[in-house]
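Aim 2 progress update. The chain analyzed this quarter is reproduced below.
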Amino acid sequence: MTDATSARSTRRHHWRRDVVELAALFTAVAVADAAANTVAHGPSGPVLLCAGAAALLATTGFHVWWARRHEHAPPPTDAGDTPAADGPTATATAAPAPEGGTREAALWRMRTTVRDEPGSLAALCTALAARRVDILSLQAHPLSSGTVDEFLLRAPAELAPRHLTAAVAAAGGAETWLERADAHDLVDAPTRMLGLATRTALDSAELPLALRQLLGRCTLHSVPARSLTGQPLAEAVPAEGVLEEHTMTFRDPSGGSLTIERPQLPFTPTEFARVRALVELDTRLGQRVPPRREVLTLPEGNALTVRRAGPGDLTAARAMHLRCSERTLVRRYHGPVGDADRYLDHLLSPRFGRTLAAETASGRLVALGHLLWDGDETEVALLVEDAWQQRGIGAELLRRLVEMAAETGSKSVYAITQASNTGMVTAMRGLGLPLDYQIEEGTLVITARPTGAWDHREPRESREAIRVRDGSRRG
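Predicted structure tokens:
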């Protein structure tokens, strides 16, 4: 109700009260005049006078009781004077805050399937409102037999997940999936897609990260067209891609195929269209690496340039291999020295992650650091030319790689090396992060968390001792 409406209502009530009081006054005068004439000319004058006094006292008492009863009552409101549902009054009435502070809430991402008929979504929203659950955003994914609705919810912290899903099921929701959300999920879908497209356009290595952020928990498998020995690996994929219930397959922009799996939640045609748009964008733009360069000054005063490396650095990286000793190459690749060059073509591709290179003023590569995507975890690997070892180059590259992993949201970073590789062990210790050491079949796996927080978990199943991704490289 506005101030003007309130003022008009107050004036209307005052006018009515004045008319009633004036009528009562005239009535009282008439009654008094009649009583005076009766007392003056009748034999029962004293009796009538006492009766009038009693009636007057009774009337006065009733008036006082009535006034006190309605003194603090709010004025009646018409239908048009009802406050708006999203106004301050409605908010205070519908969701009163408990004494001592505001109500604690939890954010949830929920996906459920409803029947494609009028009123089904309304019934679901009513059921959520009955549990005091706010719907912050809603996306509809149409299907042939129904609609998958994806919600971002703010629910009371004391509301258990099973009670929330039970309420949804009672309202007609089926195949309900619930997961905790955070503040990053408050971004609306168009804004998120624009941000992911921008990241993908600037850097080829961002595509796997963009897909994981778009789809949530999923697994990406990138299979090259051919193996290191030249044998065909990837199957032919249609240009438009293939959508199955829990799997999507596309042509990899780098060649071969890109398969995305999500066992816990089926993909929808809407998600398939979004992923296809990102993959097509990456394919049209081709291989691209941010041109950013930074200067690294060594303790003895020499200056090196640290930059992102890509497929265009393949020749320079092979030349660095020729300058490295057999011992250095074995420590890095954990296998025959003759296979080292064959891994570079894949390591320098954004298919697997990001690579940092350290080069001299003349453009000669002296060190490579790889950040390799591995689901929620990330692998780091270093190779420093013999003549440039023990100068802090590897430690500096490792620090920058871990910072990059933290920026992408990686939960942990691990390095696979040998116990005798004191340089790598020292570099990992120099990060200042909690470390976990695991010995697996003579191989040392050192794991750190970029955030510095560590909770012990069971060792990952042998990490395949020496990890070979897609049969194409050794980490």
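The domain at 105-185 is CATH 3.30.70.260 (Alpha-Beta Plaits). The chain has three domains: 105-185, 189-285, 293-474. These observations will guide the mutagenesis experiments scheduled for the next reporting period.
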